[in-house]
Amino acid sequence: MSTLSVQDHHGVHHDEHGHEHHHDTFLTKYVFSQDHKMIAKQFLITGIIMAVFAMLLSILFRIQLAYPDKAFPLMETILGRFAPEGRMDPNFYLSLVTIHGTIMVFFVLTAGLSGTFSNLLIPLQLGARDMASPFMNMLSYWLFFLASLVMIGSFFVEKGPAGPGWTIYPPLSALPKAMPGSDMGMTLWLVSMVMFVASQLMGGINYVSTVLNMRTKGMDLWKMPLTIWAFFLTAILGVLAFPVLVAGVVLLIFDRSVGTSFYLSDIVLGGVPQPFEGGSPILFQHLFWFLGHPEVYIVIMPALGISSEIIATNSRKPIFGYHAMVYSLIGITVLSFIVWGHHMFVTGMNPFLGGVFMITTLIIAVPSAVKTFNYLATLWRGNIRFTPAMMFAVGLVSFFISGGLTGIYLGNAALDINLHDTYFVVAHFHLVMGSAAIFGMLAGVYHWFPKMFGRLMDEKLGYLHFWITFIGAYLVFFPMHFMGLDGVPRRYYAFTEFESFERWLSVNTFITWAAIMAAVAQVAFLFNFFYSIFFGKKTTQNPWGSNTLEWTTPIERIHGNWPGDIPTVYRWPYDYSKPGHDEDFIPQTVPYSETMSSNLPHDFENNPVGMDEYNKWTNTQRSNEEVK
Amino acid sequence: MAFKKLINSKKLLSLFAMLTLFGTQVLMAQVESTTKAAEGAPAAAANAADKPSVWAGPFYYILLFLVVCFAVAIVGKILRVYDLTKQIQGKKPMNWNNITGILFLLFLILGLYGSYWSFTTQGAMILPSAASVHGESLDTMFFITFGITVVVFIITQVLLFGFLFQYRGSDKRKATYYPHNNTIEAAWTIAPAIVLTVLVVFGFTTWRKITNHVDAEGEAASIDIEVVGHQFAWELRYPGKDQKLGEMNYKLVSGTNKVGVNFKDKHSMDDLVADTLVVPVNKSIRLNIHAQDVIHSVYMPHFRVQLNAVPGLPTFFKFTPTVTTREMKAKEDNAKFEYLLYCNKICGGGHYNMQKVVRVVTEAEYQKWLAQQKPYLTDALKKELHFAETEQKEEKSENRLALNN
């Protein structure tokens, strides 16, 4: 058995004494839990709360964009000095944009997505009793929780939360006098992010070591589900990229409070030349995007992994090109480290470098395209079952195509000259990493909800949630492409100062109402989620007819996952609708010897003994037929 | 079943009724006041404006939301009852696979129509074709990329939703076991690779041409114009008769010397300041871009020009305008049309209003305009410099060039 002895101890302990002998207090079971399943739920619920918060922020600034000339007394009631006389303050608008981006990218789509599903699925799908270091895993959650508190807490400081955009480019973020959002709020942002990165590192190291060391017997790397491959590679990306952000952030803290000039040079503020010399704002951009670009793959890869699993299960078909899927994930992982410069084509970076980054960027489009085609081929001639999870997974594919194609424009340095920082960019990344990743996350929630809570979510409400969100997201982001092509810049508080942008006002109003509609639809999800935790229909052990290991655990979600021995794995996770078998799925725990009628020569490629058995069996079958 | 209880709860029902009653009253009051206003009594209108509408607004929407929630719950209930009665009668239950499959097909058709509508209606609102030499090649490249991506977009989305409809689940069928096919996989790895290579090569050469061009020998030198960004405005400086901009140094910035021109440099003496970025048509222009406080971005979308203004890192962008403002006014059929230069990198609270008018004129008009511009070296500045001259230390230019030529 490949599990570590510590883990076995847990299991053995459990087997001998049974469930009732655990003296779990409320504190150890629900709060400072070291059980990966509970930590996953903690991540998920915190992530959902943060997502709702960030979504409300986006509605606030969308209202500002739709009605720039209108005063909303209610806004003053809610926001106080940030909206004097019911009109939003321009600096607060920028803070809203900044915190919306930060929370969505880091707190929801990184921690909420990886944190939830890596924690839940890595031990369950690999056949481990828990994570490699459960204590570190707990610390990872609590640091994330603290980071969330600090980030939201920054709304309560005098000058408001950080405001220089989620990319916090210095000098704007380095000079507290440059804008209110660069004052105390920015300090809290930096503190929060340092804790967040520490949390991600602890999580990431845990995921990598669990995947490498704690797989059950028979679970070699090429028998892992694609979810695990995605989480594994995501964790590697995070472990390698996040420290660079900390380095960048620490230097920024020095510039802000110690008086160094890492990012500052030749600055005149309020008519007075400042003493900073020799630094470079571009240096920060390099450090930021060295994390920032892998970050977008940290966001999308788990979503792709989740959707691979869900699409295969619900099409009742093996995922098409399993090896190609893995290799394209590996390709994306490697390439994502050498494309960061495409965020900096027009920042004054040496244009030759821009050319190089453009080449690497367009190369990374190839594995992404392969993944899309493989999804399509998986659906082809399937027997598609529309669970809400399946619908969200398919929605992801649609967004991934729509948003990915515009990446070809933006990755092209020459075209980026005119598109950089316009609404075209906003549309692009909200589709390809925003909507797609959140759909992956929602798909995962619908699919593994029974595993987390032992109950099922309501399907009809799920359908309603899907349709409104899906249509809403397209209505919000599709028109934005054209605004970008008209040269409308992002992060503008209002478009009233430009006569040429006035014709976009009706489009902005339309987008805002579409966004409100999609936001309201999330109530259906929230109700469904929290209601089903307590009152949902009880689930069966394997509600989706799935092959992977997590569905062999009991519904009760016991500590240590499996009551007896950890099951052994004999086959890959995608034997759906295999011809010759009576059911349309064969779980990974079923040995080939029990499924002689459905075995194929391909199954025994590296297994000469099995091949002999297979040949023997086919020969006897043939001779039997001849006798008949 | 607790859900059922919730819906059947009498308390909730009566609460709902009360809310509706109250809501209608508030709503009626609002309607009344608006009708009054419509009748043309200005006093009544003013009254209506500061009366209850303040609180009726959000409350009205909350009420509306509750009504929608109840409607959804009721529709859900009806569907359930319908489904159950069907099953009691021994008929098949509702087939959600079929319903969803059809909805996806419907979405595909409406979605394709919607994108077509968007492309034609909103697509007509985008920037006019480029008004600069390099912009034209960018436009060509844009439309080539557009052609390729739209075809891929339509094909893949049609396949995606088409498959969802075609292969929607049924108990009678089993899916085809088809785990991989190396030939197909190789094909659809190589095909995008080839297309992308073409785009890369095209893009790379265009990019190099735009960013890496030196004034050719024999060709007239570009007109140097300096753009300095600060919160929240742009400063413009034109060279004088010597065709050369004087050096600048941020340490010399003062109330009168706004961009910190160094008057030790003799080229500085005849420099001019301007309010509007006026440039002659068909002449190569070299914008020398500086920032004083935070990063700004010089964005002139009509000319397909954009480059960030970075403090401590002077940058430049060379372009040749090809269409005068007057021609563009006629082309756009808009007498008020002006080319604009505006900030496109978040720079603080005034970021949304940091613009400069750009005017492209003929050579004769340009010369006439240039003659009217005021010198940078104003009387006040002369006075100040006279005092400062003795104190001013030797300042070597520390400007580093960002671009590699």
Helix content of chain A: 55-70%
The pLDDT mean of chain A sits at 91
CATH topology of the largest domain in chain B: Immunoglobulin-like
Question: Considering the protein shown, what is the CATH homologous superfamily of the largest domain in chain A?
Answer: Cytochrome c oxidase-like, subunit I domain
Percent strand of chain A equals under 5%
CATH class of the largest domain in chain A equals Mainly Alpha
Strand arrangement in the largest pleated sheet of chain B:
8-5-1-2-3-11
Approximate strand percentage of chain B: 5-15%
Figure out the total of helices of chain B. 10
CATH class of the largest domain in chain B: Mainly Beta
Low-confidence stretches of chain B: 33-54, 390-398
Terminal-residue CA separation of chain A? 46 Å
Number of strands of chain A: 4
Number of strands of chain B: 11
Overview features:
heterodimer; A: 628 residues; mainly alpha; Cytochrome C Oxidase, Chain A; 2 domains; two-stranded antiparallel ribbon; two-stranded antiparallel sheet; 4 strands; B: 405 residues; alpha+beta; Immunoglobulin-like; 3 domains; six-stranded mixed β-sheet; five-stranded mixed β-sheet; 10 helices; 49% helix
Question: Can you offer a commentary on this structure?
Answer:
The complex is a heterodimer of chains A (628) and B (405). Chain A has 17 helices and four strands. Chain A is mainly α and 628 residues long. Chain A has two domains: 5-263 and 279-538, Cytochrome c oxidase-like, subunit I domain (Cytochrome C Oxidase, Chain A, Up-down Bundle); 549-627, no CATH class. In chain A, strands 1-2 form a two-stranded antiparallel ribbon. In chain A, strands 3-4 form a two-stranded antiparallel ribbon. In chain A, α9 crosses α14 and α12 (388-410) runs antiparallel to α14 (423-453). The longest helix of chain A is centred in the first third of the chain and has 37 residues, at 90-126. Chain A is globular, with a radius of gyration of 26 Å. By secondary structure, chain B is α+β, with helices and mostly antiparallel strands. Chain B has three domains: 2-94, no CATH class; 106-169 and 180-211; 223-388, Sandwich (Immunoglobulin-like), CATH 2.60.40. Chain B is built from ten helices and eleven strands. Chain B has helices at residues 2-8, 10-38, 42-50, 53-88, 96-121, 133-166, 182-211, 325-332, 363-371, 379-388, and strands spanning 223-230, 233-238, 272-274, 277-280, 285-291, 296-300, 305-309, 315-319, 339-343, 355-361, 374-375. Chain B is elongated. Chains A and B meet through α5, β1, β2, α9 and α10 of A and α4, α5, α6, α7 and β7 of B.
